[in-house]
Structures are given as C-alpha cells and as structure tokens.
Design goal:
Blueprint: H1 4-16, H2 26-32, E1 36-40, E2 49-53, E3 58-64, H3 72-87, H4 89-96, H5 112-125, H6 129-138, H7 143-153, H8 157-167, E4 172-178, E5 181-187, H9 189-193, H10 209-216, E6 222-228, E7 240-249, E8 252-260
Parallel strand pairs: 1-3
Antiparallel strand pairs: 2-3, 4-5, 4-8, 6-7, 7-8
Length: 262
C-alpha cells in the first residue's frame, strides 16, 4: 500500500538533512539527527538494529560492517529501515521506553511496526519522483526501467520492484523465485481490488522465461513471455498475463507480471 504519511515523512527527512541527490546519503541523514552508525562483525542472519542508550541519551544503529558484508544494497535498506524506527514517532517513543525489536530481511516480517519501517525505507531510498513521471505518462513501468531505478538509487532490484507495485495503478505483481520456487510476491492495490491479488501457484510455470534465464541466461538480462491467465491465477477466460523477468544471481529470478486484456 502507498502510505502518504510515510511518503511525506521520508521527503521531510531528506529535505531537512539536505540529502536530496541520488543515491540518498544515509550517513548524512543519520549525522543530521546525531544518530550513531555502528558497524559490527555479525552472522549472516543479522540485518540491523537500533537502540536508545539512556545514559548517553543517544540512538545507535548497529549494522553489518560494509567492509566485510557482501550485500551493499541490502545494507543500505537495513540502515534506512532502522532510521524508520527513529523517525516514525510511535516507534521512537517505544525505543525510548526500552522496548526492543528484531529486524528481519527487507519485506519479510508481518509485524506491522516492521512493515511500516520497510515502507519508510523504500520511500526514503526511492523517492516517488523517480517513478512518478513515467507512471503518470504511460500508466506503467517496464522491468528494465525498474532495474535502472534500482541502480540509480543503489537499492536491490527486488526492493525497487516492490516499490513500483506499491505505487502502480495497473494490475501487477513482482515475484521473487529461487530455482523456480516462488519465495515471495507483492501485488498492486489494483490487483487486490480486481480479485487478482493472490497467485494460485507456488512454482513458476514450466513456460516461464524465468526458468530458462536461470538455466541459460546472464545476470541482468531481461526475457519476456505471454501467458494464459491460468498459469498464474485460479481463473480462466480471455485475459492474458505478460511476464518480464531477470536473473538476480545465486539461483534467484525476479518477474514482473502484468494483466492484459485479450
């Protein structure tokens, strides 16, 4: 869901810290509000955590050490997520009271507080203006445009894809799969309103180009395929689904599904 409150908050934070150029400078934002960024050597499952230290009266974001952490875009998202816990009033007040939290990987948690911090992070790192122009002009973005946005904003292609479907006015989904098994997906508001918010499959269809790109493609290459609707949804009839996909690496693929009228 596109949350106007979090959009305004993220924009206000960028303006106040004079961090308006892309990619957004998270260190500059943290320094503006005297938030300490503390890199630490961590295990693979640690993404980040913010704590309030009452004796020092300071907030500290603990995050993986960028010198040894192999996922720089995930690290940026994790820091932006923790900043969300600081800038969203209810979250910051809970931290001051001594409440703790454990942040999951981006867009994995079902905890409403963690979902809000994810949405703030996406709005902070990928300003709506980076997508608005093309969406308003044509009504949609291509997967290639989403990938270019990810590069400009220094975020993962998956995060940029989720950001797009949150803003899109078309019936669409972004689907993350690993070796053909669907790991997660997000649907646009229009998809939910039209009754196409939930996929009926847990694996990519055998004709999905994402299966072929995993076996024979190059990272970043985009392939496309037209599908009958029953390949993805518990429906039949005259509608078609257009799939654009790209290889992310390590067996992962990303697909953008768009519903088309026959």
């Amino acid at each position: 869901m596109f949350d106007p409150r979090l959009e305004r908050l993220a924009q206000d934070v960028r303006h106040a810290a004079k961090a308006m150029t892309l990619p957004v400078n998270l260190e500059q934002i943290a320094a503006f509000d005297d938030i300490l960024l503390q890199p630490i050597a961590v295990h693979a499952d640690f993404n980040g955590k913010i704590e309030f230290l009452p004796d020092e009266n300071v907030f500290v974001i603990f995050h993986p050490d960028p010198a040894t952490y192999e996922y720089p875009t995930r690290l940026r998202f994790s820091i932006a997520h923790e900043l969300g816990h600081f800038y969203i009033d209810e979250h910051r007040e809970a931290l001051v009271r001594g409440e703790s939290h454990s942040s999951a990987a981006p867009f994995r948690s079902k905890n409403p507080r963690e979902v809000e911090a994810d949405e703030f992070a996406a709005a902070l790192l990928i300003p709506a203006s980076t997508m608005d122009g093309s969406i308003n002009k044509r009504g949609f973005l291509t997967l290639a445009e989403i990938c270019r946005t990810a590069t400009v904003c220094r975020v993962s292609r998956y995060a940029a894809g989720i950001r797009y479907v949150r803003m899109a006015s078309e019936v669409c989904q972004i689907v993350l799969a690993h070796q053909g098994v669907i790991k997660s997906y997000f649907s646009s508001d229009e998809a939910h309103l039209s009754g196409f918010g939930k996929l009926s499959v847990d694996r990519l269809h055998p004709t999905s180009p994402a299966r072929h790109v995993n076996a024979f493609g190059d990272i970043g290459e985009i392939r496309e395929q037209d599908h009958p609707i029953e390949n993805w949804f518990d429906r039949s009839g005259g509608k078609r689904v257009w799939e654009s996909c790209t290889l992310l690496g390590e067996g992962y693929s990303l697909s953008l599904l768009s519903l088309e009228e026959n």
